[in-house]
Amino acid sequence: WAGAHAFSIPAAAQNKQAAAQLIKFLTSERVAYEEAQLGFLPVRDDVWARLIEDASQSDVGLDRIRLETARIQINEDFRTPPLIAEWIPFSNIFFPQLQAIILGDVEPQAGLDAAAEATRQLMADAGYYD
After folding, report:
1. 71 and 20 in one domain?
2. pTM for this one?
């Protein structure tokens, strides 16, 4: 998944209204566009449209196509991780195995089998299975 800012206002905040105004500013089209110009992927549709429009004016014909392709890929392929408490422990099981497979340190099936077994145990310990 791609990163994005996450803002919140603590219950104990002394000036919640000012905090809300700051969040509105930090998530505004203007700020998001400025960040996107630095190379960050935007999360706002209006910023994507503006970037693609800017790129269509570029002397580099692939600029617009690259941005359109990135936007399609993000819309179709980026997913939020499951909102379960076991996500981080699962990540600590799966991703090291995946890296070992990619590096050739373990055969693909053996790495996937090891990750699957450790995941089954994690989920059983968490009460997901009878």
Report:
1. yes
2. 0.57
